[in-house]
Write a structure and sequence with these properties.
globular, 4 domains, alpha/beta, Rossmann fold, 7-stranded mixed beta sheet, VC0802-like, about 30% helix, about 725 residues
């Protein structure tokens, strides 16, 4: 493990989700040599002085971490031993109080409390062994805070050099009912370009100022006041490698800049709120940071909002964080407040800009104004939208007819994904139109970074997230899925409510039949002459395997007058095509009651309730051993693997397919045709089958245009008697 020197070091700054790009730009401005964004944070590099400046000057970061080491931690004992191997005496002395922030779980470390306890034990035991003195634990205000993040079986150890969260500036002792964190307030102001507005002499007004967080963050930006100047201490001050002289020089420079900023001509910054108690709290916060001459607040409801007239204010920014329906009252009761806000914006502030942070876009729409940009931000775990308005070219509309808010501004990754979706849709459009395709695959992990399958079902979209490899951290996988979520409504012009997301992983036994949800919502889709019921929510699969579309249509064309057998029939899509194609009879066999009931509903959907269509619940291999009927056309599409409790033994398609095909050929008439298909990657047909029967590999002809990129999605043979 390397210790911090004056040379370049690796650092990590955490931040609210949605703020990463802003934080990366801020760190670059502070002198970062490199930056790399990840979910809720930014990796950056630079000397110790950069870390000091980041702690003092970052308006956006939550914490600044110094990564110390990475090591295996498959269980508590391994975590303990690897933590104890670190020379803690080179970092701090045993008289310092410590705390462990532990996140993540695995099979051997089942909860974070256990992980934190074992980590603490290792540090304490090291000091006892080395110095006969043990450090004390202080979970609230420790002098040394350590961060351990467990990603699967790998622990990432860092020291929190910021100490407490950097969003705590020191001016706000009491927050309101729905507090806005200081660093999120700073992000709102930066997205709204408050620094640019202030530089041009513009004013700032918050008509719902609460405890004055937005006002004070705006004033500190305008006055060049470092947000960390009010803090009493930082975590790095308790480390042995701390350079006090270097830190004092950086802090002294910040104090000088603040003095000059306070003495300068600063913009008009005003706030209002209807609650006198809230205004008193705001005044206390303003006084605590010494900005009474800059920031003024008074008691006034939104309905009475007026632009100050003591001097001309032709240009400025109106910014606010109104109540969210989730936390303060009901949504319906807030509609009027948002409407009053919209009316005041148009009436009093023509030519200004406005920024409104809300968790409900319907409330944003209730202003009656069109926003030209929308940014996704997170207030803690609450997803919010920052709506930006240009009041110069805006008109007040009736709330019921106001246009929907614009698409969110996409990240670079989300934009790249959206472009691929648009490209794929254009490539397939003529085929979809010509063949009248309603359901098709639009995207299948085309870009490795975005490992999802995107399927279209009429007006709905089904997204299956492939299980990420162990080399990809859960945070990165989550971030990439967030980018997919933001990109798809924009790229497809589909409402977010019409997009369903699931995670796909290997399913064994009855796992494939387990419910993922319990909505029971069925959607009717068409494929040729057939109508199918699909369920996008409740199960891992939807009830329709899209890659088998050509084979199903082929069976429909060949089934007239024939007895058709569908083994491992699933929801019976091939059976429906055979029946509609004029099959003399159909027989469908599967072990799942869920799917057989689904098949019965599909038969009813297509008005195929004839006695000629038999549905059998049984293990296919057992049934074949007793079958006496013979068939002209058979579809055999077994799972790659199954160990269902209703079966006498497990089934592996590579190992067992020879016996299964022979049993199936025994019920196939001499001039009949068997279609044998499976989706086992790397599958090879038993050579002895090719000696006994005529086996033709027809895989290429059964792959539709939407699966041409993934040619290993399935394999298929046409098998006949010699």
């Amino acid at each position: 493990m390397s210790l911090m020197t004056t040379d370049t070091e690796a650092w990590f700054a955490t931040c609210p989700k949605g703020v990463e790009s802003l934080l990366a730009s801020e760190l670059t401005t502070l002198g970062a040599e490199t930056t790399r964004e990840t979910v809720a944070g930014v990796h950056f590099s630079g000397p110790r002085a950069l870390a000091y400046r980041a702690c003092l000057w970052s308006r956006l970061a939550n914490r600044v971490l110094w990564p110390l080491a990475q090591f295996d931690a498959v269980d508590g004992d391994m975590l303990y031993h690897n933590m104890k191997d670190i020379d803690w005496g080179r970092l701090f002395t045993p008289d310092k109080t410590i705390a462990i922030d532990f996140s993540g779980e695995n099979r051997g470390i089942r909860n974070t409390q256990f992980g934190a306890q074992r980590s603490k034990d290792a540090i304490v035991d090291w000091f006892v062994s080395a110095t006969a003195t043990r450090p004390s634990v202080d979970r609230v205000n420790p002098q040394v805070r350590l961060n351990v993040r467990l990603v699967r079986d790998r622990a990432h150890l860092s020291i929190d050099i910021s100490g407490g969260s950097l969003h705590q500036r020191g001016y706000r002792l009491q927050a309101g009912v729905a507090p806005l964190k200081e660093n999120l307030a700073a992000a709102v102001l930066l997205r709204a370009d408050w620094p640019g507005v202030a530089a041009r002499g513009g004013a700032l007004i918050d008509p719902l100022c609460g405890s004055a967080t937005l006002l004070l963050e705006a004033a500190m930006m305008a006055a060049d006041i470092a947000p960390g100047l009010q803090r009493k201490h930082f975590g790095f001050e308790h480390l042995l490698i701390h350079d006090a002289a270097q830190w004092q020089a950086i802090a002294s420079d910040a104090r000088s800049r603040a003095e000059r900023g306070r003495a300068a001509q600063l913009p008009e910054i005003r706030g209002y709120d209807w609650d006198p108690a809230v205004i008193r709290r705001a005044q206390e916060n303003i006084a605590r940071i010494g900005l009474e001459k800059v920031v003024r607040v008074s008691c006034k409801p939104v309905s009475e909002l007026q632009k100050p007239d003591h001097r001309p204010l032709p240009f400025g920014l109106l910014v606010c964080n109104p109540p969210y329906g989730e936390r303060i009252g009901e949504k319906e009761s807030l509609m009027g407040l948002y409407r009053q806000l919209g009316e005041a914006m148009i009436r009093e502030f023509p030519g200004w800009r406005a920024a409104v942070l809300t968790s409900d876009l319907d409330l944003g729409k209730a202003t009656g104004l069109r926003s030209h940009k929308r940014y996704a931000l997170f207030n803690g775990k609450l997803a919010t939208s920052l709506l930006l308005f240009d009041l110069a070219d805006n008109t007040l509309r009736d709330a019921a007819t106001a246009p929907a808010d614009p698409s969110p501004v996409l990240s670079e990754g989300a934009t790249m994904f959206a472009n691929r979706i648009v490209k794929n849709r254009k490539r397939l459009s003529s085929w979809v139109k010509r063949e009248q395709i309603q359901c098709y695959r639009l995207y299948d992990a085309d870009m490795p970074e975005y490992s999802v399958a995107v399927d279209i079902y009429g007006d709905y979209v089904h997204v299956a997230e492939y299980q990420a490899p162990k080399s990809i951290s859960p945070e990165v996988a989550e971030h990439r899925l967030d980018e997919v979520r933001s990109a798809l409504p924009v790229a497809l012009g589909v409402a977010a409510d019409n997009i369903v997301y699931k995670q796909r992983s290997r399913q064994r036994g009855k796992e494939q039949y387990k419910r993922q949800d319990n909505r029971g919502e069925m959607l009717t889709v068409c494929e040729g002459e057939a109508k199918f019921l699909v369920n996008l929510n409740d199960y891992l699969d939807t009830g329709l395997f899209l890659d088998h579309r050509p084979l199903r249509l082929r069976i429909g064309r060949e089934a007239k007058g024939k007895d058709f057998l569908n083994l491992f029939c699933y929801t019976g899509a091939a059976t429906i095509h055979a029946a509609l194609g004029g099959a003399h009879s159909t027989t469908s066999v599967d072990l799942s009651n869920t799917y057989l009931n689904w098949l019965s509903n599909n038969l009813a959907q297509n008005e195929l309730q004839s006695v000629r269509h038999t549905v059998i619940r049984e293990d296919c291999q057992s049934w074949l051993g007793r079958a006496r009927s013979r068939y002209d056309l058979i579809l055999l599409d077994p799972p790659s693997f199954s160990n269902s409790r209703a079966m006498s033994d497990s089934f592996d398609v590579q190992r067992d397919h020879g016996d299964l095909v022979r049993k199936t050929m025994a019920v196939l008439r001499q001039k009949g045709l068997l279609y044998f298909s499976n989706n086992r990657r790397g599958f090879t047909l038993d050579p002895s089958l090719q000696e006994e029967f005529v086996c033709e590999d027809i895989t290429a002809s059964t792959l539709p245009p939407d699966f041409q990129r993934n040619r290993k999605i399935h394999c298929c043979w046409a098998i006949r008697h010699k």
